[in-house]
Amino acid sequence: MDTKILVAYASKHGMTEEIANKIGETLRQSGFQVDVLPVKRVIKPETFKAVVLGSAFYIAMWRKDMVKFLEKNEKLLSERPVWLFSSGPMGEGDPAELSQGWRFPEAQRSMIERIKPRDVTIFHGAINIKKMSFLEKWVLKNVKAPTGDFRDWDAINKWAGSVAAALKR
Ligand SMILES: Cc1cc2nc3c(=O)[nH]c(=O)nc-3n(C[C@H](O)[C@H](O)[C@H](O)COP(=O)(O)O)c2cc1C
Q1: Atom 31 of ligand 1, residue of closest alpha carbon
Q2: Using CA positions, which residue lies closest to atom 15 of ligand 1?
Q3: Rounded to two decimals, what is the model's pTM?
Q4: Mean local confidence (pLDDT), 34-61
């Protein structure tokens, strides 16, 4: 029987990776066996009994490797409990409000409706300006996005706890 949980992420600068690691840690503390992996390194997704997937938002889109993974594995994901999260909004306040109600890219709406995740959420993101390319700095300047680390570890922990509770039911 499949017993492990997969937490897979798509992260460009490591901030979403750290969120995925935190979710993995909380699930392990709840007694589950968990693999936390970059989504492009997941080889046999069918061997997991439940799947948590998270991608950073870049210009209102998820990272390509996450979209590819969802497209490739849509059927098996629709047959398992799945949770989705995005990391993105910068600034204080409700992350869903900061992103004008968006929790996932519109382009993936119909696929997500077919996968029927148990929950889809959005967490604040983080930007280390020193790591940004010239183009990224230019985009950030134009959209006047605040920079810094806005990740809300309590909210991330609480959400991971709700995933664990649902899996125990
Ligand atoms: C060039 C650029 C574009 C971004 N576009 C968005 C966006 O459209 N929506 C959003 O919520 N966050 C956006 N962000 C914020 C990132 O999603 C956030 O910093 C995220 O935590 C980065 O995760 P990563 O380090 O795992 O790649 C953008 C950041 C950069 C640098």
Answers
A1: 136
A2: 88
A3: 0.97
A4: 96
